[in-house]
């Protein structure tokens, strides 16, 4: 079938618009990467755009040698792994239960869950609750309060509802109980949506900084996002990460924020391409009736 002139014009225009959007999305990131490898003189002069100028890795060396950076980095990995595991456990069982039409009180529980998307107890009551539970300065203050994302739960619920009832009925006739059906039938068929939810939760925990800022006081418990936040806020400068000379201090102060940003987002940036196919299919499958 031959394409019309109007359709060809539309395709060209569509590609152009998408390329502009891609450029606008990538430019800030590429600019940060370029600044992280550039010298102080070019950064101060505002001459760094997409290509590093005056190639310099002194700041990378200094940050990598900073012991506190790696302690905070390790904390972020622990918080992300533990938080994602807890979130996936509670979200999966909650979504699976709500996907069953025979569940007594299903409508009330769904409405109650959705209600929490729009209203919460407030910052001060949450802070007092965390303190009273003894979670202050512990990992649980980071991973427990936001263990279930209602948005993610609704996606999983929709996905489970679209699975054929005959699969579970056949398993039940073979003597399998509810937990066996979930573990051996439902979850193996839900790899796409599970991978999507893991990505959502992992990125959320990795980027999270406010709960740690609110509930943690000890520097050796901070995630790396607090380290980065202190850099951006000016609480930590070149001298704090071990600059050994005036020249080093000037160079490090010029691009330490860019270097820390690049090192912080690198793991997520590395993992994302491998789960992208699950991410796309998982969201689509969870939204189709």
TrEMBL record:
<feature type="domain" description="ABC transmembrane type-1">
    <location>
        <begin position="73"/>
        <end position="267"/>
    </location>
</feature>
<keyword id="KW-1003">Cell membrane</keyword>
<feature type="transmembrane region" description="Helical">
    <location>
        <begin position="139"/>
        <end position="160"/>
    </location>
</feature>
<feature type="transmembrane region" description="Helical">
    <location>
        <begin position="77"/>
        <end position="96"/>
    </location>
</feature>
<feature type="transmembrane region" description="Helical">
    <location>
        <begin position="108"/>
        <end position="127"/>
    </location>
</feature>
<feature type="transmembrane region" description="Helical">
    <location>
        <begin position="12"/>
        <end position="30"/>
    </location>
</feature>
<keyword id="KW-0472">Membrane</keyword>
<feature type="transmembrane region" description="Helical">
    <location>
        <begin position="181"/>
        <end position="206"/>
    </location>
</feature>
<feature type="transmembrane region" description="Helical">
    <location>
        <begin position="226"/>
        <end position="246"/>
    </location>
</feature>
<dbReference type="InterPro" id="IPR035906">
    <property type="entry name" value="MetI-like_sf"/>
</dbReference>
<keyword id="KW-1133">Transmembrane helix</keyword>
<dbReference type="InterPro" id="IPR000515">
    <property type="entry name" value="MetI-like"/>
</dbReference>
<comment type="similarity">
    <text>Belongs to the binding-protein-dependent transport system permease family.</text>
</comment>
<dbReference type="Pfam" id="PF00528">
    <property type="entry name" value="BPD_transp_1"/>
</dbReference>
<dbReference type="GO" id="GO:0005886">
    <property type="term" value="C:plasma membrane"/>
</dbReference>
<feature type="transmembrane region" description="Helical">
    <location>
        <begin position="258"/>
        <end position="275"/>
    </location>
</feature>
<keyword id="KW-0812">Transmembrane</keyword>
<protein>
    <submittedName>
        <fullName>Sugar ABC transporter permease</fullName>
    </submittedName>
</protein>
<dbReference type="GO" id="GO:0055085">
    <property type="term" value="P:transmembrane transport"/>
</dbReference>
<keyword id="KW-0813">Transport</keyword>
């Amino acid at each position: 079938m031959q394409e019309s002139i109007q359709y060809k014009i539309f395709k060209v225009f569509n590609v152009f618009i998408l390329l502009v959007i891609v450029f606008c999305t990538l430019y800030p990131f590429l600019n940060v990467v370029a600044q992280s490898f550039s010298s102080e003189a070019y950064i101060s002069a505002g001459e760094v755009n997409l290509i590093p100028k005056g190639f310099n890795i002194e700041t990378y060396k200094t940050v990598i040698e900073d012991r506190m950076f790696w302690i905070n980095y390790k904390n972020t990995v622990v918080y992300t792994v533990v938080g994602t595991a807890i979130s996936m456990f509670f979200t999966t069982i909650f979504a699976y239960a709500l996907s069953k039409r025979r569940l007594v009180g299903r409508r009330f529980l769904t409405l109650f869950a959705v209600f929490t998307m729009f209203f919460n107890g407030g910052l001060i009551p949450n802070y007092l609750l965390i303190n009273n539970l003894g979670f202050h300065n512990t990992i649980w203050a980071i991973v427990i309060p936001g263990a279930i994302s209602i948005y993610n739960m609704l996606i999983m619920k929709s996905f489970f509802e679209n699975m054929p009832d005959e699969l579970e009925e056949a398993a039940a006739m073979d003597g399998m109980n509810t937990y066996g059906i979930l573990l051996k039938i439902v979850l193996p068929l839900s790899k796409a949506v599970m991978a999507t939810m893991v990505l959502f939760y992992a990125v959320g925990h990795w980027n999270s900084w406010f709960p740690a800022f609110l509930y943690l006081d000890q520097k050796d418990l901070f995630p790396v996002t607090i380290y980065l936040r202190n850099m951006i806020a000016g609480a930590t400068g070149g001298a704090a990460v071990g600059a050994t000379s005036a020249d080093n201090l000037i160079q490090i102060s010029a691009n330490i924020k860019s270097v820390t940003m690049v090192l912080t987002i690198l793991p997520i940036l590395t993992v994302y391409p491998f789960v992208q196919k699950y991410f796309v299919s998982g969201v689509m499958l969870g939204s189709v009736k």
